[in-house]
Amino acid sequence: MSVHVIDEANRCLGCANPRCRENGCPIHTNIPKMIKLFKENQMMEAAEMLFANNPLSMVCSLVCNHESQCEGNCVRGIKGEPVHISSIENYISDSCFERLELKPAPSNGMKAAVIGAGPAGITIAIILALKGYSITVFETHDKIGGILRYGIPEFRLPKSILDRYYKKMRELGIKFRPNFSIGGSTGIQDLLNDGYKSVFIGTGAWRPRKLGVPGETFGNVFYAINYLNNPDVYELGDKVAIIGAGNAAMDVARTAIRHGSKEVVVYVRGEEVSASKSEFEYAKVDGVKFEYKKQIVRILDEGPVFLDTETGEETLVPADSVIIAISQVPQDRIVTHEKDLKLNEKGNLYTNESGETSLPGVFASGDVVTGAKTVVAAVAVSKQIAEDMDRYMREL
Ligand SMILES: Cc1cc2nc3c(=O)[nH]c(=O)nc-3n(C[C@H](O)[C@H](O)[C@H](O)COP(=O)(O)OP(=O)(O)OC[C@H]3O[C@@H](n4cnc5c(N)ncnc54)[C@H](O)[C@@H]3O)c2cc1C
After folding, report:
1. Ligand 1 centroid distance, CA of 152 (Å)
2. pLDDT (0 to 100) of residue 2
3. Residue 67 CA to ligand 1 centre (angstroms)
4. Domains of the chain, CATH where assigned
5. Ligand 1, pocket-test mutation among 165, 375, 379, most atoms within 8 A of CB
6. Is 104 left (phi over 0), alpha (psi -120 to 50) or beta?
7. Region for residue 367 given its phi and psi (left: phi exceeds 0; alpha: psi -120 to 50; beta: otherwise)
């Protein structure tokens, strides 16, 4: 094991005002209690507490931006190295996951539908199943996970974790309809007509944001979200130019290198990348190169043309492939189908403070509401919306 979790746990000061939890963790994981239970050999209790607070604890322990969240707020980090909280959480939630005894409440006879099996949908499905609802999850892809499976690469988040979640969810009695999109032959009204008391929309943000430059439709140009969906089917060639400098761009670059591309360069418009420090550092270690102050002007069959914002010069950079990684926005399949679903001022799905959309009984959260964000943000808000859905259905 690369990090010795027992040593790390022993370094925790057990602060009376734990900044790691209060300031650092978007879902307020009780980190001091987790570490205390772990040190007292009560790991199952720690795992149960973690799961109850955040059903995706195992995932978050791997993919959250710990350096700016829990670990970034650890008092130990002021003068030295922060406690490696994520490794402790991962050790606990991973080793106890199969042994978690989830005890659903007796059936309350009500059905709820969940559209989308990403972090938001998984959270809602688990919480409502535990409250005694009969849950059916509708998912466009063949497997659960959303971006966790079809976006974040295997080397950062093993897909076997999502298979374990699927098993756990089946044990809770959750039903799945894979390879099935809502908004085509079947709409939300069909679900309500069939007796689902409430519907949850957690369809994420899968429409690539466009650059809006000439050449974007050429055969040598791809979008990050499409490439990461299944990198094996792409032949990028030796030289790959990546436009965008966030975490998705780092995932694309590191994946392209692992698939054999020899010269992978990220072109950054400003002077700094927007990716987290650790993702940036890993990309450099993997051999990714960075060019700064390069603004894309157009894309040719031979490669992208950049304006150097310092010198004002335009240059063609020869490349076999160009990948655009400048974020995603929600697809509008459901919205187009359901004319009564309103959008918010950002063009995402509108919800009120209880997570209810403009259609009564239809709730939503995650990226489809907020635009591209994070796993922990999707889980944190979905936790609250599961409670709102429960209240709504009980009051019917
Ligand atoms: C490349 C990349 C890397 C990322 N890395 C990180 C990271 O390291 N850490 C982090 O915290 N966040 C990361 N994120 C962001 C994070 O993954 C998302 O914020 C999170 O997955 C949002 O969860 P969600 O449930 O709202 O949506 P999604 O994960 O997008 O899931 C939505 C699901 O709905 C399904 N769906 C869509 N339309 C329909 C329909 N009509 N009918 C049925 N099903 C439908 C989709 O197939 C999908 O399975 C990353 C994002 C990307 C793109």
Report:
1. 9
2. 61
3. 22
4. 2-99 (1.10.1060.10), 111-205+329-394 (3.50.50.60), 210-326 (3.50.50.60)
5. 375
6. beta
7. alpha
* Global pTM exceeds 0.90: yes
At residue 247, the pLDDT reads 94
Query: What's the pLDDT score for residue 333?
Result: 75
Rounded distance between C-alpha atoms, residue 104 and residue 192, angstroms: 24
- For ligand 1, pick from 199, 374, 379 the residue to mutate: most ligand atoms within 8 Å of CB: 374
How far is 191 from 362, CA to CA, in rounded Å? 10
Is residue 250 in contact with ligand 1, taking CB distance under 6 Å?
A: no
* DSSP-assigned letters across all residues of 50-108: HHHH-TTHHHHHHHS-GGGTTGGG-THHHHSPPP-HHHHHHHHHHHHGGG----PPPP-
* Cβ–Cβ under 8 Å, residues 294 and 308: yes
Query: Ligand 1: does its nearest atom lie under 6 Å from the Cβ of 139?
Result: yes
Looking from the CA of residue 144, the nearest atom of ligand 1 is 49
Question: Is 374 a pocket residue for ligand 1 (Cβ < 6 Å)?
Answer: yes
Q: Is the CB of 138 under 6 A from ligand 1?
A: yes
- The Cα–Cα gap between 286 and 193 comes to 52
Low-confidence residues in the chain, pLDDT < 70: 1-2, 332
Interatomic CA distance for residues 322 and 236, integer angstroms: 8
Residue 3's pLDDT is 77
Burial bucket for residue 211 (CB in 10 Å: 0-12, 13-18, 19+): buried
The protein residue with its alpha carbon nearest to ligand 1, atom 1, reads: 248
CA 133 and chain centroid, separation: 25
Q: How far is the CA of 59 from the centre of ligand 1 (A)?
A: 13
